[in-house]
Design a protein that fits this description.
Elements (H helix, E strand, L loop, with lengths): L3 E9 L3 H13 L6 E4 L41 H6 L3 E3 L4 E5 L4 E4 L4 E9 L3 E3 L15 E2 L4 H13 L5 E5 L3 H12 L3 E5 L12 H13 L3 E3 L4 E6 L5 E6 L4 E3 L2 E4 L3 E3 L10 E2 L2 E3 L11 E3 L4 E5 L4 E4 L3 H19 L12 E6 L2 E7 L4 E7 L8 E8 L2 E8 L3 H13 L6 H7 L1 H5 L2
Parallel strand pairs: 1-2, 1-6, 2-3, 6-19, 8-15, 9-10, 9-15, 10-11, 18-20
Antiparallel strand pairs: 4-5, 5-6, 7-16, 12-13, 13-14, 17-18, 20-21, 22-23, 23-26, 24-25, 25-26
Helix pairs in contact: 1-6
Bound molecules: flavin-adenine dinucleotide (FAD).
Length: 436
């Protein structure tokens, strides 16, 4: 007979949200044996953003243990012993392949059965493959994606093997493409980035902001080819990629290819059992799904974004952490007959590459005004952008800010102060935020 275990709470997914949910359970009072985290990955929950930053950089002597949650927020780092000491079952290298929400039963790839009273879905996202755009890549070696620890280890090894003047093509101009291009360059690869949009980080950056980063990357020796799609690959007799074909007829030499073309929430286990919206699992402002005692957190949740009055899904670490904490507080409050306020999230994104570091808070809608010095030759650049909608500042971006300045821009995005004109913002620049 199959092995069967029963828990009060089960978290499926041992990523950022899973790790922070576990911590909040212990803060709220957890008895040994009440909680299990079941994760496909062979390692405890860690701060996933580090995979494309410090952890990938062989020069930085990376160890994953430095990045276990809660390294990103300054709390006690959750080593395997932490889970053991708290009586939490950390069940790793175990994929849930079937979920029956009606009978509150999960089945793993090795045939184990898990029963729960309350389920927390924290299955995160997966990467979008080039094959989904009709590009043949299935049997080709040396094409790398990055989401989980195993992807990262494979990529790091390949980076080492192809190091000597290796020509690497990075497909994708989002934050992953930028961070990985920087890591590859720092490890002496000759890097070419290609993407179809007219400028990098097209979803967030304005053309003016992008021109700084593109100039900075060019100064670092990274070649950027914009407005171009990869259409296929040429390979050698070992099945290794040797060239990338572009839609404008150009062919780029490549010892390896790294792809970062977007992510998609992992919801397939629950299809037809929970209500979905905007590609994710629909929740209320306490992360309750349409099924009683089932919650969804992090990347998979489409939740009411109170500040903007609409349903949104957010694929960022800060929300993964905060949604996890909020959901657990809500679960405990229900048990104790209390209520908690609705989740009131202010969008926050960040990235780091080379010596650069930026933060963004709020919404990137409306008119924009750039402030500060965005000369890519500047070794310590500090500049930003305000987004203004209906006479109010709704979003702020800052490159090179101190922690005080970043706090100030977050306050602006939250308070949404009114402004007389864009000229005022342009003149006052960062001091508009710091003097608020
Ligand atoms: P995840 O952290 O992805 O965790 C999901 C977990 O669920 C994984 O362990 C997965 O294996 C497991 N799982 C999935 N299905 C199953 C199953 N059936 N059975 C068992 N386990 C399962 N965000 C930022 O804000 N800033 C950044 O700079 C940034 N950089 C990033 C860099 C990289 C390389 C990546 C991949 C992401 C980055 N992100 C960044 C996004 C951020 O990491 C995610 O938003 C965050 O990890 C989401 O947390 P999560 O817990 O919802 O999902």
């Amino acid at each position: 007979m199959a092995d069967e275990k029963s828990y009060k709470y089960v978290i499926v997914g041992g990523g950022v949200a899973g790790g922070y949910a576990a911590r909040e359970f212990t803060n709220q009072g957890l008895k040994p044996g009440e909680l299990a985290i079941i994760s496909k990955e062979p390692v405890p929950p860690f701060e996933r953003p580090e995979l494309s930053k410090v952890y990938i950089d062989s020069g930085a002597n990376p160890t994953l243990a430095k990045h276990y949650v809660c390294a990103g927020t300054g709390g006690e780092r959750q080593y395997p012993k932490w889970y053991k000491d708290k009586g939490i079952d950390l069940i790793l290298s175990t994929e849930i392949v079937k979920a029956d929400l009606a009978s509150k039963t999960l089945v793993s790839d090795d045939g184990q059965i898990f029963k729960y009273q309350t389920l927390l879905i924290a299955t995160g996202s997966t990467f979008v493959r080039l094959s989904e755009f009709g590009i043949q890549e299935a049997d080709i070696k040396n094409i790398f994606y990055l989401r989980e620890i195993e992807d990262s280890d494979e990529l790091a090894l390949a980076m080492e093997i192809y190091k000597k003047g290796g020509k690497t093509v990075v497909i994708g101009g989002g934050y992953l493409g930028l961070e990985l291009s920087a890591a590859l360059r720092a490890n002496n690869h000759e890097v070419t980035m290609i993407f179809p949009e007219p400028w990098i980080m097209h979803q967030l950056f304005t053309a003016e902001m992008a021109s700084f980063y593109e100039g900075y990357y060019a100064n670092k020796g990274i070649k950027i080819i914009k407005g171009t799609l990869a259409t296929g690959f040429n390979t050698n007799s070992n099945g290794e990629v040797t060239e990338v074909k572009l839609d404008d007829g150009r062919i780029l030499e490549a010892g390896m290819v790294v792809v970062g073309v977007g992510g998609r929430p992992v919801t397939s286990l629950f299809k037809g059992q929970v209500v979905e919206e905007k590609g994710g699992i629909k929740t209320d402002a306490l992360f309750k799904t349409s099924v009683p005692n089932v919650y969804a957190l992090g990347d998979v949740a489409t939740f009411p974004m109170k500040i903007y009055g609409e349903m949104r899904r957010v694929e960022h670490a800060d929300h993964a952490r905060k949604s996890a904490v909020h959901a657990v507080k809500a679960i405990k409050a229900v048990e104790e007959g209390r209520t908690v306020p609705d989740y009131d999230y202010l969008p926050y994104f960040y990235s780091r590459f080379f010596d650069l570091s930026w933060e963004f808070y709020g919404d990137n809608v409306g008119e924009t005004i750039l402030f500060g010095d965005n000369d890519p030759k500047n070794s310590k650049p500090k500049f930003g952008t305000y987004w203004v909608k209906d006479g109010r500042v709704v979003g702020v971006f800052l490159e090179g800010g101190t922690s005080e300045e970043n706090k100030a821009i977050a306050n602006v995005a939250r308070a949404q102060p009114s402004v007389e004109s864009l000229d005022v913002l342009s003149k006052e620049g960062l001091s508009f935020a710091t003097n608020l």
